[in-house]
TrEMBL record:
Full protein name: DNA polymerase III subunit delta
Example of a GO biological process term: DNA-templated DNA replication
Family annotation (InterPro entries): DNA_pol_HolB (IPR004622), DNA_Rep/Repair_Clamp_Loader (IPR050238), P-loop_NTPase (IPR027417)
Family annotation (NCBIfam families): holB
Organism taxonomic ancestry: Bacteria, Pseudomonadati, Planctomycetota, Candidatus Brocadiia, Candidatus Brocadiales
Length: 347
């Protein structure tokens, strides 16, 4: 792999190739963009391009440095990831990073540290990171990978160069699923639509019950009635096996997938309503039903519903009671959709 295998990020690649050629790399970057579009993969390819023993602004993929980076075995490149079943980087991991950066590079003139989920740190961890960013060693390049730039503290943000990554196009996701994951074309196409430009989500969807869950959900929302409020929430928890999950983080990620499905469903209705033929319909195999449903809803109402769903998605990371969060979202949606006061569910 080299930059040639990074898709849809030409602007970012050009920027870094210029910086490498002109020796103008910054000490700290924030890579921002939705999950699963290749930010981590890019950081590895960038490290290869920087450390490659051959001259030029891309990796040769054959020298000892390139090969050892590909095998996660290069001493001047360190990745800091959240531990299993944790969403956040712990302070001990950042202290370890400080120690690592304190030691000069062993095989090159730079030392690169990539920190995953840097937008989900607590106060203590953020302060520790800030200290590192305030006085980085001259040879350090620190890359923070985030999905939400708004969640990064201003003091951290102001010390980094911000690089925004674009979602992948449907066609690219489909091709990657066929070429690298050997899915058949039809399945790859369907997953590409549902993944919203994220390879990670597409692969996740292909390897679990997720696709069936989503189809069930769409069919169920299409036939929802005003009085379904209470029973629908319970049905959701059962059908998506949310109650069966014991680890909170697993539960949270399942609820996130559920809320994203609501988002895609109502976005599809809006696309049908406005007749924007060039925008993709995610639930393509339910296109006719969505079209017909969209006739009974107003654009204004759909915008309001989408706002409710987006707010729930934002609150999910900070909310301990995810059952209640989901409950409230459904109640608000039904209230907007049916325009009358409906029974508030309780858990
Ligand atoms: Zn090389």
């Amino acid at each position: 792999m080299s930059f040639k295998n990074i898709f849809c990020q030409d602007r970012v690649i050009n920027l870094f190739q210029k910086a490498i050629t002109n020796n103008h790399l910054a000490h700290a970057y924030i890579f921002a963009g939705q999950e699963g579009i290749g930010k981590t993969l890019f950081s590895k390819e960038l490290a290869k391009a920087i450390f490659c023993q051959h001259s030029g602004a891309d990796a040769c993929d054959t020298c000892s440095h390139c090969q050892r980076i590909a095998n996660d075995h290069f001493p001047d490149l360190v990745f800091i990831l959240p531990e299993k079943n944790s969403r956040t980087i712990k302070i001990e991991q950042l202290r370890y990073l400080q120690d690592v950066l304190h030691v000069k590079p062993m095989e090159s003139k730079y030392k690169i540290a990539v920190i995953q989920s840097a937008d989900k740190m607590n106060e203590e961890s953020s302060n520790c990171l800030l200290k590192t960013l305030e006085e980085p060693p001259s040879y350090a390049i620190i890359i923070l990978i985030v999905t939400s730039l708004e969640s990064v503290r201003e003091t951290v943000r102001s010390r980094c160069q911000i690089i925004r990554f674009s979602p992948l196009s449907m066609a690219v996701v489909k091709d990657i699923l066929v070429d690298r994951f050997q899915l058949d074309t039809k399945q790859a196409e369907q997953l590409a639509y549902l993944s919203n430009g994220s390879i990670e989500r597409a692969v996740l969807l292909s390897s679990s019950r997720a696709l069936e869950n989503k189809r069930w959900l769409v069919d169920r929302i299409l036939t929802l009635e005003m009085n379904d409020n209470l029973s629908f929430s319970k049905e959701l928890f059962d059908e998506w096996h949310i109650q069966d999950l014991e680890v909170l983080e697993e539960k949270r990620s399942q609820v996130k997938e559920l809320i994203l499905s609501f988002l895609l469903y109502y976005r599809d209705l809006l696309v049908c309503k406005t007749g924007e033929e060039n925008l993709p319909i995610h639930f393509i195999d339910r296109k006719e039903a969505l079209r017909s449903k969209s006739k009974s809803l107003s654009e204004d109402m759909l915008f309001h519903i989408l706002k409710v769903i987006k707010t729930s998605l934002e609150q999910l990371d900070h909310n301990a009671n995810i059952n209640l969060l989901l409950e409230n979202m459904i109640t608000k949606i039904l209230h907007l959709q049916f325009g009358r006061r409906i029974t508030q569910a309780t858990f």
